Amino acid sequence: MKRKGFGFSLPVTAVILVIGFIYFSTVFTFIDRWLSLASSPGIANAAAFTALALMCVYNYSIAVFRDPGRVPPNYMPDVEDPQSPVHEIKRKVLLVGSLTVEPQDEDQEMGSYLRTIYVISGLVLVPLSIALGVLLGWHVYLSLQNKTTIEYHEGVRAMWLAEKGGQVYKHPYDIGAYENLTLILGPNILSWLCPTSKHIGSGLRFRTAFDSAPVSSGTKP
Known about the structure:
The chain crosses the membrane at residues 12-31, 43-65, 117-141. The protein has 5 helices and no strands. By secondary structure, it is an all-alpha fold. The radius of gyration is 23 Å and the shape is elongated.
């Protein structure tokens, strides 16, 4: 995989600013006032939150700079039928909107400063937590079904057409919850919390419910 070049991006900059604001306000305002950074519980919580923030930045940087790849120009998908159900590679883009925060004046009183931090943190964290919770649940569902977002919407129409014709539609790449997860996260269950397994295969063909011989591992866009 190639890495993308560097360049200014307003959405990426906004996300980094929000991550930075949440980190510094949590560590140096909330944890410091509630537990004190001079105490053992305060240091432990600050260290744990710092590790979490670094993981978020690391994963976000991979998502931003890693090139998702291209479909080979000479690739032609087969006609989809019960004997050879193959989909084209599809990519989806998640646009993330964020909120930037202006720095506080150094001469503000502590009470006004804390109220401002609490209000801004609430405005950022509450909707962000709800949005990420819904997004997490949605992608857990897609992973268990072995679908992309586009395939989900295509499946809704395919199901409607199948029911209209008196048939039963089944997503061809749904080979069972466990097998679906191993195709996405890798065959090693211990690496599911931090997927690092290299994908095996060309990225153009994937195991389907019509295949009789199982494979050990694979990937799906």
